Amino acid sequence: MNEYLFADAHCHLESIAGGLLPYILHISAGYSHDSNLKNSRIAAQHSNAYLCAGIAPQEAMKHQDIKIKLVEWEEAIATQIADTGRLVAIGEIGLDYHWAKTQEERFLQHECFISQLALAERLGLPAVIHSRDAEEEVVEILRNFNLRYMLHCFSGKAQTAMLAASHKGIISIPPLRSKERRQFIRDLPLEKLVCESDAPYIGKTPQDTLEAIKIIAEIKELPAEAVQKQTLLNTIEFFGIK
Q1: Domain with 88 in it: what CATH number?
Q2: pLDDT tens digits, residue range 159-177?
Q3: Do residues 95 and 110 make contact, with C-beta atoms less than 8 angstroms apart?
Q4: Number of structural domains found in the chain
Q5: CA nearest 209: which of 14, 52, 72, 4?
Q6: Are 11 and 206 in contact (CB under 8 A)?
Q7: Global confidence as pTM
Q8: Domain with 79 in it
């Protein structure tokens, strides 16, 4: 742990230009078959990078033959990617009803989500969850699985965050402020929080995780260094990094 100053619990290294900074622990998340393979190659080349592999809901709803596709994609995750020793979670997976405009699109997302939760159980890995306009449904589904999970960039109600944390969930904080986020940051124990950049989609680079650390420190009235250290420890423990 002494080699890292902080952890970025969720970024997309395959979409970020430039090299990796050595003092950051990077957890890079796939969202499609191609991005899973790209992140696997990056993690194999860098000792301070690990990956989550999964099919995100926005990707799942594009494929009417999702059950057939999942056979190939999940096989690649369970063998080709897992064999690298750098796979630490299944994700990002979940439900996103902001983009799913029809019942068919929601159904495809749901089919993909349930299948990959079963994959995570089978592999003994935690899950990294993307939820938008479906947070309560996602947490209710997760409570039926024997899985630890991280709610990435969670923007739902504080009550839902508290429910997840009382189960097997942790909450990942991005470099964005909101009233709801402020409430559950204040009320949750620090041990239930990790920090992320979601670079390049929210932060531009993993370095922007420092802004998420600052947000927690301000709300909890703690030194930034203490938040930096504890969220690093939380990330290492959640992902089982040796």
Answers
A1: 3.20.20.140
A2: 999 999 999 999 999 999 9
A3: yes
A4: 1
A5: 4
A6: yes
A7: 0.96
A8: 6-239
